[in-house]
Design a protein that fits this description.
The chain is α/β, with parallel strands linked by helices. The protein has one domain: Rossmann fold. The protein has six helices and five strands. It has a five-stranded parallel β-sheet, sandwiched between helices. The protein is globular and about 50 Å long.
């Protein structure tokens, strides 16, 4: 089995990266799992849309840039994607949104009668400083879920997708330890 672990945080000492490391270790502990770690910052991914990668609604076979095609190949090779990111302004950071815009593109991720990503699994894991109660009060958990599970994953044929927000990441060491300990439950069974 192959897993693609996508991380969208600029600091390797961040809690986001600690969560990603737990996910990686969980996947590797399952045995016979190849984990491809895609660090959007270290790889210098440019989130800006360019004409070369802009969707062509009249040509679903448009050849996108070499960088985007390389990312598409990594997604294609993975049975499971786990995307770990900070929640900034109640949404994914710009680098992750740009990765979705450029890579989960027309003709590759959607726009075909047989979705290329059907049968794959995606786990979106966001880390938010705000409490679960604050998110719920404003309906923001639902917004993030609809964006990533429905608007991105389901739209691209991925029916086994989930969005989990790890809340109150600034609440102290004991709380953070509990979040880290529960990450493997979020990913679920590897097989």
């Amino acid at each position: 089995m192959k897993a693609l672990l996508v991380v969208a945080h600029p600091r390797p000492d961040s809690l986001t990266w600690q969560v990603a490391a737990r996910v990686r270790d969980h996947l590797l502990a399952a045995g016979d799992v190849e984990v491809d770690v895609l660090d959007l910052h270290v790889e210098g991914f440019d989130p800006r849309m360019t004409p070369e990668d802009e969707p062509d609604w009249a040509d679903r076979d448009k050849p996108y840039s070499a960088d985007v095609r390389a990312h598409m190949a990594r997604i294609s090779a993975a049975d499971l994607q786990v995307v770990v990111f900070p929640v900034w302004w109640y949404g994914p950071p710009a680098i992750l949104k740009g990765w979705i815009d450029r890579v989960w593109n027309h003709g590759f991720a959607y726009g075909r009668s047989q979705p290329r990503l059907a049968g794959k699994r995606v786990r979106w894991i966001g880390l938010a400083g705000e409490s679960r109660e604050t998110f719920a009060e404003h309906g923001l958990d639902d917004v993030l879920d609809r964006l990533l599970r429905v608007g991105v994953s389901n739209h691209c044929g991925v029916t086994d997708a989930s969005v989990t927000v790890l809340h109150s990441t600034l609440a102290g060491e004991d709380h953070v330890r509990g979040l880290l300990d529960g990450v493997t439950d979020v990913v679920g069974p590897v097989r």
